[in-house]
Structures are given as C-alpha cells and as structure tokens.
Amino acid sequence: MAIEFTKYHGLGNDFILIDNRSSSTPVITPEEAIKLCDRHFGIGADGVIFALPGENNTDYTMRIFNSDGSEPEMCGNGIRCFADFVADLEGESRNKDKYQIHTLAGVMTPQLMADGQVKVDMGLPWLLAGEIPTTLANADEKVINHTLEVAGKSWDVTCVSTGNPHCITFVEDVAAIPLETIGPKFEHHPVFPQRINTEFVEVVRRDYVKMRVWERGAGITLACGTGACATLVAGVLTGKCDRTATVELPGGPLLIEWADDQRLYMTGPAEKVFAGKL
Ligand SMILES: N[C@@H](CCC[C@H](N)C(=O)O)C(=O)O
C-alpha cells in the first residue's frame, strides 16, 4: 500500500506528517517510524506525526512517535506543522484558521496567522512533582531549584510539564554544555520514571534566553516547542524571566507568553519541505 507523506520542520525540529484521517489507528507502527526517521537509511526526521479524526468534538487528533518509536503526549513544534498540514489537506473547503486538536496532553488550539506564523494556545503547565512526573520532591510539591546529581556534578534544576515532562537547568554558557554526553544521563535518571526532556538555558535578558535541548526519545534537536514553553515557566518561577520572552533555539526563535490566565501561548513558524510516497 502506498502512503503519502509530507516533510515539515518547525525551526529545524523536523517531522514526517501523515494523513491518517480515515482511521483512528496510526497507519505506521513505532518500528516503521524508527526506520523512516533514520537520517541515513530513511527519510530522516525527529518524529512521525499522524492527523487522525478528532476525538471529543475536536477537529482532529494528533499523535506522534519519536524517532526512537516511543509515543510522547505532545509536541509544540509538531502541532504548528500539524495545523499547516491539515489546512493544506482541507484545501478550498477550509473554513477556519483555528483548530481544536485532541492530543494525549489534552486539547491544544493552533491558529494560522496572517503573517504565516502559527500561534498555539498550549493550555496550562503542570507544576507538581507527581504530575510531571518526578520523584525529586513529594508528589504535591513543585520542583523549583532542586539539586540533582548527574555525571558527578550537582545541577540546580526546575521541572515543568507542558503536556510532556521537562527538566530545566540555568547555566552561564549554554554553548559549553556537552549535550551529547550529559543529555542521555538526565533522560534516563531514576528520578524521572517516564524519562525526561532536558533544557539548558542561558538568560541573556529577562525577555531573551538561549536554550539547547536533549529530547526524550529523539536526542539533540534544533528546537523544542514544549521545551521553550517549559523554559519560560521555569524562568518565571525562579524569578529570572518576564512572563513574555523570546526563546532562542539553535534552529531559531520562538515567542512564548505565560499569560495572566496561566495559559501558555507559543508563536513560531511551520515550514513544508517536500512531499512523497512511501
Ligand atoms: N520536539 C517536540 C517535543 C517532542 C516530544 C518529546 N521528544 C518527548 O518525548 O516528550 C516539541 O517541539 O515540543
């Protein structure tokens, strides 16, 4: 059977998008996703994203497999690409620019903006240790500036879930962090029962930070939307950032706002690269 796909990226965080609207089960298995994401023997991507029929009165359901075949709850850069992808699929019958998307982390609302960017209402962050999840604190406590021993060093970490789990560490010089070696040690640390995405962040100004990420299930990526949102929340909780800031990633900038109603808003690009048939 031939399967059509479209390759997208959001600031270099790249995905294979599949039109899965005729079934509620992904047409690709996690094992196949690993092969497709391979940068030497496959198409190459950080993940495979499926556009499925909407559940609970939403427009669509988004599911994603990481490049290691695991299934995360949410993907920030992915949902911007998803919005552009479904708008394209709808073609001339499209009658809206804002979609209600069901994800494993709840309903997210991306909006296609006139300037080509996509703004996403990412909902509320989860701050309690039991929700993230991590055993770094009691289940009903927040994890702000906790000490975590990794690779023989003490790191000052703040943990936040933006649908998926993140551990944020503020550092003097983000370029000096040996992501390749330290990232996997955070990801598989026993205090994170569902593994973790890890962000290293340098605060340049209260409204401008630089961030590099090691993603759960994907390793080093050029950008992470949920991670950028978690970074801003951690910056506010630790008193380092304003509630609106630009998070500069290796792939480019994202504008993040943690609004007074406590909802997170992320604005950034979604770029179609090419389409093909498997
Ligand atoms: N790159 C994504 C996050 C993808 C999921 C992540 N690897 C996880 O397992 O939680 C983003 O832009 O948010």
UniProtKB/TrEMBL annotation:
Its EC number is 5.1.1.7. One of its GO terms (molecular function) is diaminopimelate epimerase activity. GO terms for biological process: lysine biosynthetic process via diaminopimelate. It is found in: Cytoplasm. GO terms for cellular component: cytosol. Substrate binds at residues 13, 66, 76-77, 164, 197, 215-216, 225-226. Pathway: Amino-acid biosynthesis; L-lysine biosynthesis via DAP pathway; DL-2,6-diaminopimelate from LL-2,6-diaminopimelate: step 1/1. The record marks 166, 215 as: Could be important to modulate the pK values of the two catalytic cysteine residues. It catalyses: (2S,6S)-2,6-diaminopimelate = meso-2,6-diaminopimelate. The keyword Lyase does not apply. The active site is at 75, 75 (proton donor), 224 (proton acceptor). SUPFAM superfamilies: Diaminopimelate epimerase-like (SSF54506). Keywords: Amino-acid biosynthesis, Cytoplasm, Isomerase, Lysine biosynthesis. Homodimer. Belongs to the diaminopimelate epimerase family. HAMAP family: DAP_epimerase. Catalyzes the stereoinversion of LL-2,6-diaminopimelate (L,L-DAP) to meso-diaminopimelate (meso-DAP), a precursor of L-lysine and an essential component of the bacterial peptidoglycan. This is Diaminopimelate epimerase. It comes from Hassallia byssoidea VB512170.
